Each structure stands twice: as C-alpha cells, then as structure tokens.
Amino acid sequence: MVNEPGLYFDIVHVIETLGEYHTGKRLFEDLGPICSATTPQVIARFDAVRSRAEFRALLRSIAEDARLHSHKPILHIEAHGCSAGIQVSSGECLTWTEFKAELTTINEVSRLNLLVILAACDGAHMVSIIQPVDRAPVLALIGPKRIVYPYEIERASLAFYRTLFDAGEVGAAWRAMNDAVAPDQRTFAAFTAEYTFCYIMHHYLKTLCSEDAFAKREDDATANGLRDGTIENVEHFRQWFRSYVGDHQGHFERMKQHFFFCDLYPENVTRFAVAFEDCLEIR
C-alpha cells in the first residue's frame, strides 16, 4: 500500500467519459506496469461511462467495493466540466452537488483517504459548494485551473503517477504534474481537506459572524420567534442567542469533528490539526 502522511491507497480507478478522446484509457495502459512494480501491488482499474446514471452507479459500486474489501481508492476522472458539473458522454450533466454526495460516501468508507484527480474544466467549483456542516468529500482534490489540452492532461497525469509511486508523496507528485506542463505556472490546483475546511469556515466567520451580520441574525431570529409564538421572554432569548449562536469557537470545534469524521474515526483528531486561528485569515 503506497502512502504519504495522511494518505493511503491501494487501488486507482480511472474513469473516462469523454466520447471522442481516450486519454483515460491510455493512462490506464501506462499505469499497468507502474502499479505491477509496487510491493504490495496496487490495483489499477478502468471504466468508461456514458450516462449520468452509469456514472453514479459506478461511484456507488466503488464505495461498496471499498467497504467490502477495505480499499483506499484514488479516483482519476477524465471528463468535460462546466460551472454546473461534469458533462458525461451522453451530453447529460452530473451536478457538482450530486458528485460531492457520491464522493463523500466513498471518503467516509475509506476513512477520509480519498484522493481525486479531476481532469475536467471548472472542477474547483465543487469546493465552493461545500458547507461547514458538510462531511469532507475528499482528502484532496487536484484539477486544472484553466482549459487544458488532451496532450497536457496525458503528460501531467503520467508525471503525477510516476512521481507518486517513486516518491510516495502527493505534494511532490502535484509539483511534478505542474512542471510537466509549465514549470513556471500552477496549471493544476490542489485543495486539501484542511484548506477547504479553513476556507469555508473563514467565509462563514467573515460573512455571517461579523458584528453587523451577527446583530442582524439576532434581530431576524427574534422577530421570527415573536411572529411564530415560540419566544416568551425576548431578553432571555437574546441572551441565549448571543451565548450559544455567538460561540463561534464552539461551533468551529463541532463542525471540525463532523467534517473530518472524528466522531467515526477518532484517529482523525490527530491527523487533522486545524485550529480556530487558522480560519481567521486565508491566503
């Protein structure tokens, strides 16, 4: 089983839904000898899907396979993307929300060890729809920041896996795939679970927990409660709102436990050492 701090994997699923291109199939053929040379051997699998239903069924079968055989998969997806989601060969769209839900199931089964290489435009958009109350859909997501050509995808993907298997470190593999296309640019972005959580918490604190925003939320909640007849004492309600809803660090701790599956896998408490202060400023 190849590993680096925080990531363990023993199977690579290459999924292709491009129609006219077969970059996924060629990557799978290149991965064969690389996977065979590992000890213990890493499994490589290839699936071509055409419809949205086929794609969702495949993702669910990967989750079930991981559950039954304790697999820790990497998903490598060759597809067209847009702001709405992943476009499959049939012309249908698997929305980012639907895709996120399927990935979260796989990530939960694999104990938050899911790495996704998404060779699709606008793949980073999925990160923007993750909420603080969600579970982490991936350990890390890597995808292009711009429209990329098939030859760039092929060159970058092969560099990524060669480095990953040689060095056993995702960061080095990510740098290698960028260097394979343009050494002075970051053609492919990487979003880790830690960064994503800090990003969405930062947005939550900035937009909903500022002094003005919090005061408006308190006033709105009070007005709603009076209208619905659920508030008997306005001052007591406002005190409760400020002490409970205003406990931003307490909410951070609860959301962190949920996001990183710490309630299911206690070892994740030490795997993901994200502090409240990390969410106050995002670079």
Describe this structure in words.
With 283 residues, the protein is α/β, with parallel strands linked by helices. The protein has two domains: 2-192, Rossmann fold; 196-279, no CATH class. Helices cover 50% and strands 17% of the residues. It has eleven helices and ten strands. It has helices at residues 23-36, 52-69, 96-109, 125-128, 150-167, 170-181, 193-208, 211-228, 234-245, 248-259, 268-271, and strands at 2-4, 7-9, 11-17, 43-48, 73-81, 85-87, 93-95, 115-119, 140-144, 188-192. A hairpin with a 5-residue loop joins strand 6 and strand 7. The chain is elongated, with a radius of gyration of 21 Å.
Strand residues, percent: 15-25%
**What structural class should be given to the helix and strand makeup?**
alpha/beta
- Mean pLDDT equals 90
Number of separate strands = 10
The first-level CATH class name of the largest domain: Alpha Beta
Q: Say what the CATH topology of the largest domain is.
A: Rossmann fold
CATH A-level architecture of the largest domain: 3-Layer(aba) Sandwich
- Unreliable runs: none
Keywords:
single chain; 10 strands; 283 residues; 11 helices; elongated; two-stranded antiparallel sheet; alpha/beta; 2 domains; 8-stranded mixed β-sheet; Rossmann fold
Quick overview of this protein structure:
The protein is α/β, with parallel strands linked by helices and 283 residues long. Helix content is 50%, strand content 17%.
